[in-house]
């Protein structure tokens, strides 16, 4: 039984999670020795992850939870073998992490301006901890924030998706200044940077197992950033640049078009040919309009000078030449305003406590005008403009947050004059003041409210969209979504206030909000994700305004009914994908994968059952229900159950693991998946069923299909070849050559082991032969044994022995198989012959018999010849010879029965 080594340091109020594992061979029962009352209150939980592993969790740690936790495994067997309990020490520490972001909570900058934001994060934890910090951008209408820049616990800078290029170009930086100050710097702001920006800090501690654990995280107050588009005055030059944001640019052709509103101004094609609209053709001929491609993905448009006829939103679009689909372009829109100018005194000195009076005059303004007075302090140098007071086109005055308690007035004494008065100025009021004037067109249209929808009739699990269309609403408003169910009172879902704050009243997890602002209307979207019967009913949006200190309902939309029906099997088809067959080898780990290809709803849950097809039917191996509760099949053998594992990953994808596969594990495995949908808030019903069959084939790497050997005369060469079903980089072979003499036992001549080590076993009787041996491996699955100048004593039986080894996950060598070849008989004959003429016979018994007969006959004939010569000499001389016999050395040359 194993549990994490302590002590584990965790923060008050955080989640405590301890894993306990056991190697018990049968079904294991776990228990923890603390907090039975809190378990009943569901404050403490114990969850089976696998049959031999559990996770113990405390949802919110308390100071009193500090101490020693014990995991105890009940032993169902009679005997005891091993340790049945494990202890972990937990230390509960205070949460001392502080995160703050000084400065105003609302900023407004011009496009292309520089911005610096500061975040302070520190911790007073006694233990050694690390801090990581990330800046996020939460854009309107998006569910998840976008990371801008991160500094992880190892002080590594990481740019978020979409900000990598600007970081590499040095346009975005994150610096750590001092002990706990982090500064985020934008060199050039883009329109896409506006939204809510905030920093989040995490505190990490290293557990005794050397892993890092996040003990707490906190966020600073969010800062709302508004980025104003470029504004040009009459007579100035307009220069627009844009970049294509797509992949494989070199393989595609693009056409870039520039628009003012919905009217196309100019177009440049893939070949660089420029086409201009009729109204700008004359200006293009005079050189006032220029469009060019500056790089692989960069295009530019220059219009000089601009006039009142150029007013509107100038933007760039791009289409592919093949599909005519729009491709996103990183191109801001530029607002070209009418031709009026502003005059304002350049400098003014006021004594502390006196009144500040400023005048702003408008030259050439037409229609209704609004003014916003702004102030920028001299310290710090990078301070941004903040609103002092504004006077809209209807005469409504609104003070800025920093001047809400001050005596400040804005007036329009003449049609072309705006004034600002600030009483009792202080040193902090010093700085730069500016007036921002906007021109408005009058509109006689009355405010209207209309509710439209997409997918009025949906199936359980489908998405639905409701759109509340608000037109001509020029005052701050509050929008409320309501739902009227059958036989239920009216239910308020969510309220969106004028300052952007949101108040949820119902179940939020299935609803999402999105706001889209257009020129004369605002579209409020209510998105229903994975609708259930609880979301069925009549929806309505209403608008209220805050007047005289109270909220007054101004408009109410029409009702729109959303009907939610149960899905039918004919409409939704659950599709799975998997490999048709999976090859493997015995004694290795096998992984079978089954993935969901198409599904009915993102909110669906899935149950999976793995079955093995046998002759007597399918046998259930493992199953995991829609709540991820795992159960083994009742017919499984205990030895097979210990080698099984199951896991589900994103997709979802279901895995079946078989450890140390046996040859009996091969067969057809069926992955059966059931999709469940939520019919109501707490009721789940099965929707569709699908299955896939995977054929598992296993080979035995120790079975050698064939082994061959032959001989080569003169210098003898014995060859041994083999084939094996084992493959992969983890398999290696050991080759040994064995020798059996005529009157001796079998001995090892030479061996080349699986690590490449060549060795000759010590044997005095084999030293002469071992000196003349030559072992080679021309291929992985062949071995050659050469005997130089074979001698008569080399005769005997030879064979090669092959052993298969595999490197396991612990780095240890494991022998998997062993087999020997059939014996090879080698006969070396011809005593007294010179070494250049030896006879080697390894196979033909008839050839050997004939050779001995020929040798015997030659010897007999030679003896008869000697006797005959002696008799003739004795008769010729009549004397007795001095020597009884004389010998003559005879060289015998024998021919082999078979030529090589």
UniProtKB/TrEMBL annotation:
Q: Which InterPro entries match?
A: Ig-like_dom (IPR007110), Ig-like_dom_sf (IPR036179), Ig-like_fold (IPR013783), Ig_sub (IPR003599), Ig_sub2 (IPR003598), Ig_V-set (IPR013106), IgSF_V-set/TM_domain (IPR051102), Immunoglobulin_dom (IPR013151)
Alphabetical list of PANTHER family matching this protein: IMMUNOGLOBULIN SUPERFAMILY MEMBER 2 (PTHR12207:SF25), V-SET AND TRANSMEMBRANE DOMAIN-CONTAINING PROTEIN (PTHR12207)
Q: Which domain of life, per UniProt?
A: Eukaryota
What Pfam families does UniProt report for this protein, alphabetically? ig (PF00047), V-set (PF07686)
Record-given protein name: Ig-like domain-containing protein
* Keywords recorded for this protein, A-Z: Disulfide bond, Immunoglobulin domain, Membrane, Signal, Transmembrane, Transmembrane helix
Q: Which residues form the Ig-like domain?
A: 102-216, 332-452, 461-544, 567-690, 701-825
The GO cellular component terms are: membrane
Q: Which residues cross the membrane?
A: 850-871
Task: Identify the gene encoding this protein.
Answer: LOC101071787
Q: Which SUPFAM superfamilies match?
A: Immunoglobulin
Record Gene3D superfamilies: Immunoglobulins
**Could you tell me which species this protein originates from?**
Takifugu rubripes
């Amino acid at each position: 039984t194993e549990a994490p080594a302590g002590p584990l340091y965790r923060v008050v109020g955080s989640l405590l999670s301890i894993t306990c594992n056991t190697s018990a061979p049968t079904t294991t029962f776990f228990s923890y020795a603390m907090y039975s009352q809190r378990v009943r209150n569901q404050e403490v939980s114990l969850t089976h992850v696998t049959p031999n592993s559990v996770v113990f969790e405390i949802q919110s740690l308390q100071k009193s939870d500090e101490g020693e936790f014990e995991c105890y495994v009940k032993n169902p067997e009679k005997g005891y073998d091993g340790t049945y309990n494990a202890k972990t020490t937990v230390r509960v520490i205070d949460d001392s992490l502080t995160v703050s972001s000084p400065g105003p909570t609302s900023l407004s900058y011009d496009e292309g301006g520089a911005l610096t934001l500061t975040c302070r994060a520190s911790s007073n934890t006694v233990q050694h901890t690390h801090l990581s910090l990330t800046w996020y951008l939460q854009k309107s209408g998006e569910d998840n924030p976008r990371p801008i820049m991160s500094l992880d616990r190892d002080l590594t800078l990481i740019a978020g998706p979409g900000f990598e290029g600007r970081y590499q170009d040095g346009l975005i930086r994150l610096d750590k200044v001092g002990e706990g100050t982090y500064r985020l710097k934008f060199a050039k702001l883009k329109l896409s940077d506006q939204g809510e920006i905030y920093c989040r800090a995490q505190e990490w501690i290293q557990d005794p197992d050397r892993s890092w654990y996040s003990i707490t995280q906190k966020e600073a107050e969010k800062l709302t950033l508004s980025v104003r588009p470029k504004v040009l005055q009459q007579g100035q030059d307009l220069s627009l640049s844009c970049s294509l944001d797509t992949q494989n640019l070199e393989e595609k052709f693009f056409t870039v078009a520039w628009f003012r509103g919905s009217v196309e101004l100019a177009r440049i094609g893939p070949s660089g040919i420029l086409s201009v609209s009729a109204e700008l053709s004359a200006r293009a001929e005079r050189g006032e309009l220029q469009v060019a491609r500056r790089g692989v993905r960069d295009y530019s448009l220059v219009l000089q000078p601009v006039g009142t006829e150029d007013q509107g939103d100038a933007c760039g679009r791009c289409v592919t030449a093949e599909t005519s689909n729009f491709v996103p372009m990183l191109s801001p829109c530029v607002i070209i305003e009418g031709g009026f100018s502003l005059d304002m005194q350049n400098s003014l000195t006021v004594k502390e406590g006196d009144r500040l009076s400023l005048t702003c005059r408008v030259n050439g303004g037409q229609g209704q005008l609004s003014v916003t007075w702004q102030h920028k302090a001299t310290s710090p140098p990078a301070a941004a403009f903040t609103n002092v007071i504004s006077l809209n086109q209807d005469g409504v005055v609104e003070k800025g947050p920093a001047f809400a308690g001050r005596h400040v007035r804005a007036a329009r004494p003449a049609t072309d004059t705006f004034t600002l008065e600030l009483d009792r100025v202080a040193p902090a009021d010093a700085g730069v003041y500016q007036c921002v004037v906007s021109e408005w067109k009058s509109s006689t249209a009355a405010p209207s409210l209309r509710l439209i929808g997409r997918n009025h009739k949906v199936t359980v699990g489908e998405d639905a969209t409701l759109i509340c269309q608000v037109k001509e609403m020029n005052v701050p408003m509050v929008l409320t979504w309501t739902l009227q169910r059958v036989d239920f009172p009216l239910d308020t879902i969510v309220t969106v206030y004028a300052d952007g704050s949101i108040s949820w009243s119902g179940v939020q997890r299935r609803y999402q909000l999105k706001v889209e602002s257009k020129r004369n209307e605002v579209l409020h979207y209510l998105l229903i994700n994975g609708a259930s019967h609880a979301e069925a009913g009549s929806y309505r949006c209403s608008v209220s305004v805050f007047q005289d200190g109270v909220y007054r309902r101004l408009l109410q939309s029409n009702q729109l009914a959303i009907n939610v029906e149960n899905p039918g099997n004919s409409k939704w088809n659950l599709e799975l994908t998997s490999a048709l067959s999976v090859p493997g080898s015995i004694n290795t780990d096998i992984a079978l994968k089954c993935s969901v290809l198409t599904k009915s709803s993102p909110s669906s849950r899935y149950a999976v059952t793995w079955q093995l097809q046998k002759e007597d039917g399918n046998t259930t191996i493992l199953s995991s229900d829609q709540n991820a509760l795992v159960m083994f099949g009742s017919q499984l053998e205990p030895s097979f159950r210990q080698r099984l594992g199951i896991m589900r990953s994103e997709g979802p994808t279901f895995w079946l693991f078989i450890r140390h596969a046996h040859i009996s594990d091969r067969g057809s495995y069926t992955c059966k998946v059931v999709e469940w949908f939520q019919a109501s808030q707490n009721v789940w019903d099965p929707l569709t069923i699908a299955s896939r069959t995977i054929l598992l084939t296993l080979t035995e790497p120790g079975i050698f299909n064939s082994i061959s050997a032959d001989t080569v005369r003169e210098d003898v060469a014995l060859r041994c070849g083999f084939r094996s079903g084992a493959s992969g980089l983890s398999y290696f072979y050991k080759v040994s050559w064995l020798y059996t003499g005529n009157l001796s036992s079998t001995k090892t001549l030479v061996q080349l082991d699986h690590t490449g080590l060549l060795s000759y076993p010590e044997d005095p009787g084999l030293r002469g032969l071992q000196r003349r041996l030559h072992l080679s491996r021309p291929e992985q699955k062949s071995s050659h044994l050469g005997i130089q100048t074979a001698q008569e004593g080399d005769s005997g039986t030879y064979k090669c022995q092959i052993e298969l080894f595999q490197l396991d996950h612990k780095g240890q060598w494991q022998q998997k198989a062993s087999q020997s070849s059939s014996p090879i008989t080698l006969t070396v004959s011809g005593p007294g012959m010179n070494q250049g003429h030896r006879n080697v016979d390894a196979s033909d018994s008839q050839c050997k018999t004939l050779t001995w007969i020929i040798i015997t006959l030659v010897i007999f004939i030679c003896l008869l010849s000697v006797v005959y010569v002696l008799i003739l000499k004795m008769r010729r001389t009549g004397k007795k010879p001095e020597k009884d016999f004389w010998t003559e050395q005879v060289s015998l040359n024998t021919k082999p029965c078979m030529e090589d």
